[in-house]
Structures are given as C-alpha cells and as structure tokens.
Amino acid sequence: MSAARPARKPPETATQRLGRLLDMVPWLIQHRGVPIEEAASEFGVSTEQIVEDLELLFVCGTPGYGHAELIDASWESGHVYLDNADDIAAPMRLTRDEAVTLTAGLQALGSSLVGSDVAERTLAKLRAAAATTVDESVGRIELDLDDGSQHPAMATLKDAFARGRRVHLGYYVATRDESTERDVDIMRIVNLDGQWYVEGWCHRARGVRLFRLDRIEHAEVLDVDGTPPPEARPRDLDDVFVPGENDLTVVLEASRWAAWIADYYPNEGVERGPDGSLRVTLKVADPALVRRLVLRLGGEVRVVEPAELAQAVAQEARSALEAYDRLDT
Amino acid sequence: MSPASASAEKTERLLNLILALKSARRPVSKHRIRESLPAYAAATSDEAFDRMFERDKDELREMGIPITTTVLDVLFDDEVGYRIDSNETTLPAISFEPDEVAALALAARAWSTASISGAASAGLRKLRLSGVEIDESVAAGAEPRIRTKEPAFDAVHAALSALQPITFDYRKNDGELTTRRVQPWALKNWHGRWYLTGYDLDREDDRAFRLSRFEGAVRKLGRAGSYAVPEGYEPDVALEQQAAASVGTARVRLRHGRGHTLRRHALSVTELDERWSEVEVPYWRGSTERDVVALGQHAVAVSPPELVDAVRSTLLAAAEANERTPA
C-alpha cells in the first residue's frame, strides 16, 4: 500500500443532494416531529445541512408556487414537520448503488445463511424493487468470499453459537509458534478482509479475543452455557488492526521481488527506490512475527531498524545453519 | 454566483421538475414546462432551455427517475407530453419473509465498514419505509464484513457507474510502475481484496487490477458513457499465483510443538526423542523451503537434497543480509 492518504471527500453534487432529499421526505413524513439531531444522524449529515435541506424543500412545489403548492416545512422548535409533499411522500425505488450493494451483500452471505434458498428469494424481490432504469451490467460489484467451510472448526463453531454453548479450542499462536488450549464463549463469527475469525470471551485471557479460523487446530462444543460475561464488548472491527501504543516500530528493506510485503501487511508508510526496492515501516506487537517473515524471505528482506532485531534474525539463521554443518561432519 | 448556490439551484430545479411532472394529471408539453417552472422560464433562448431540459432529463433518468414521453395530439405528432409515472419511480409494495428480512439486514451490515455503506443503509431505509420491518440486531451464524480502505475505491466506483474510461498508475507485482488506460467493467472483491476488472486499452484485452496497487490519483480519460460492458460479462479475477503441484515428499525434523504450518499437511509423524519429531510432508518447491526457514533453529530439512540445499542457501542469505545492518 502506498503512503498516499484517501483524497478528501468531494463536495456533494446537485443530484446527490436531490437523492438525499427524495430519501428524506418520506422518512420525515413517517417520523413526524423528529428532532433535527436525529434526522442528521439518520442521514449522516450535520444539523446545519438538515436545516439547509429544509430551507430548500420549503421553496419547492408544484406549478403556481403559491402557499397551497409549496412544500410546507417547519423546524423552529427543533422538531421537523413536513406537509404538502404528497407527490414525493412514498419512498423511491432502489438506486443502482443501493441495489448493487444489497445484491452483492446477499451473494456474499450465500451459503453462510441457514436456508440455502433465502438469498435467491431475496435477490428476486430486490430486483423488483430496483429502479426501472438500472442496467444490471453497469456499475457491477461482486463479492467472492469463501464461506469458511474449508475450516474444519467452522461447523462446530456455528453449532455452538447457535445453541449458546461454550467451545474448547486448540489454537495456534503464530507469533510464538505455539499451540494453546482455551475455552471461549462465542460473540460472533466474521469474515474480515477475506479471513474468517471468531470473536469471543476467552476464559484463559479473561478478555475478548479474535481467533483466526485457519489457526484453530481443533474445536469441541462443551456442555456449558456459552453466554459471554456482561463485560464482554465486541471490538470495533475497524480498529482490529490498529497498532497498539506499545507496538515496536520496525523498518524493513525489501528487494523488488519481496516488494509485495508492503501490499500485504498493514503499514505506516513506504519509500520506494528507483529499482523497485522499498523501505516499509511496520508496527508490530510481537517481533517474532517479523523474525519469521524476514527469515522466510531470506536475503530479499533486511531489517534496518531496530538493529537488535537484525542481529536476532542473523543469529537465528546462523544457529539453524549449524545443524546442517553438524550433519556434514 | 458561487458554485454552492449554483448547485442548490440545480437541485431545486430538478426537484420542481419532478413535482411538476408527478402532480400533473396528464402529460405536460415542453412549452408548458418552460412556462411554468421559473428556472426554465429564465432561460435566455430556446436552445439554452432545450439543452438544460435534455440534461436534466438525462440526470433524472440516471437517478432512476425516467421521464416518459407520449404524443399529445394525434394530428400534430411532434407535440409530445412528458410525465413521470409513479409506478416506475415509487417503490412497489413487496412483502419479505422474516428470513429474507434478516438476510437483507445482514447484507447491509456487510458493508458497514465500507465507504459505500451509505447506499446499503439507504436501500434498507426505503424498504423499511415501505413497511418492511427490519431488525438490524439479527444475529448471524457467520457474517462477512467488507472494507474499502483502498484510496482508489471511490474514484473507481464512480467511474464504473458512469462508464467513464480512466487512466491510473499501477504497480506491478515486481514493483515496476506502469500507466494504464482502462474501461472499467466491474469491481470485484476476491477473498478480501478489491480488484477492478475491465478492458485495458493498451493491452487490448480484459485485465484485473488490484486496487491496493494503484498509485496516486485516478484520472478521467475521455467521455463518460463512451463504451458498454460486454453482454453477459462475468468478472473474473485471474489468481495471482496458481497453487503448484507438489513434487514428491519432503522430510523435515521439527521441535515438539513447533511448525504448525508444516504439521497441518503432514503425511506421517515419527517421534525421534523428547525434543524432536520427523514429519513427512508434500514437497512444494518454492514454498516448503520457506516454511522450514521461517522456523529458524526449530526445523531441520532432511530430504530431498534439493530442499536441504535451498533451506541452507536461504538461511545463509538471511544471515548475510541482516549482518549488513550496523549494530
């Protein structure tokens, strides 16, 4: 990933705003007297924007444009009342983006839904709800995610979750290359960036933990209630990979053949050389992860900082080589 | 006139056009439209009005609000009337079964961490307004979460919806930077990674581009709507690496409790002593040696000799490279 940050959000276009107004009118009519703040949070805009929108609606209407024809809006009390907007009081058909996102979401759910035909049935109804001008070949978004069935633990976890039972997991901790045993109360099973995780209360760690399904070595349903304790709060999935403040800063230099690591690992920035090589800065909770990565890429990647980690990698490689030297003699 | 107020004027004009055409009991002639809508009445010439009206019609159509035309007078068939048919624009009453409603809520929730989450939740809101009761707290057995953290996503998505050809700088697998010119056909998330598929104007073939490899801004190239997506097109993301077939088997000594990656594929495991066991695994050239090397002194390659040599040279390269870092 490059160091470039996402561009600032461009200002709303006239048609985007119109879309929101057409969306807002039926909602305001059904939620008569709703506080401005609530409308703002429902539509993800500021309260000032809601007021500006109401001011615009207020001057729109049907030809004649007298009092009887104009949309009537009042919000002085901090609560919104909308009248005389019968022609646009019913919700519109789904726009392309609305239909596309829901359709793709349903396709991605696919077999992880209990009834296998649910997605198909719902898709057909969505199609009927979409705008008549939506051409399905334009603006296509497809999600192709695995359903996790390749993980032997998936069926056990789903079963335990559905029945509210605790599970016992054999879990491999990659950074320590170590197998652990733990009892977990499942909170959810999610696919994030193509990887399946089970989030739950770990009785060994006495905290909420996220476990990768491909690292679960075995899973058994326990005959124990699996309700997580009240203090168990699901983590914000956006923050899952946000580095902790105690994380170690590591700078790696990669040849062009190993440049993919900048793409693969969340990082803090990349400097590219003219020959395709690069320097990437990572935040890591456990240096063992980097040691294994750098060994694996033997010679294509070098630890620049911290120097102790570079020495540790070199020493580990030398110690491993000794075993072969002993075999030779 | 500031751009902001020009934009507000346009929103107002389009909304008034919708209201005028929806409220009319019969199709409205162009002349009437021009006369009765203040924004059109202000047009300085017939041409200016025609241009404005045609563009407005196109934009509304693009938003899913088609304006239909009918012949007003059979004697003068150039006199057409315009209307917006509520059946075409209003969400029809559709009843969803409880399991379908739950599926919809999950489908929308899948996008909750993506930049286009607004579209999914707006769709859900419309269905709810038309009477579908959607409980967003519904629990799923297992649910996907889609993220769109690649900076290029929004620009590519906008281009895709507008059939807008684009050009962008793209970093190839080997690190080389190339400038590409592409007609976007689809966005595809394959196992958590976003790809743009489309027609590469220079390679004259369809290609897939990983969004995380875009560098810098996505630029427009020519007119929007200047191409069509081939009929029946199915976006296919060519896999970056094909799973290679194994070439025989390899034997590796592992410390007890170590080498999970290798043990998962073990064909046999022999305990050697209280510290070591020996596993037999399928030998994937290029990958097995790296799995062994990553374990450092906790793994020793035994056979075939090709694997042993590869492990030794990789370890040596890792040692030498990292010894170059000044202490």
From TrEMBL, chain A:
PafC HTH domain mapped to chain residues: 16-128
Keywords from the UniProt entry: Proteasome
Coiled-coil boundaries: none
GO cellular component, one term: proteasome complex
Keyword presence, Cell membrane: no
Residues annotated as domain WCX: 250-321
Stretches that traverse the bilayer: none
Record protein name field: Proteasome accessory factor C
Source organism of this protein record: Humibacillus xanthopallidus
UniProtKB/TrEMBL annotation, chain B:
Domain of life: Bacteria
Domain called WCX: residue spans: 249-319
Domain WYL: 152-217
Alphabetical list of InterPro entries matching this protein: CBASS_pafABC_assoc_protein (IPR051534), WCX_dom (IPR057727), WYL_dom (IPR026881)
Protein name per Swiss-Prot or TrEMBL: Transcriptional regulator
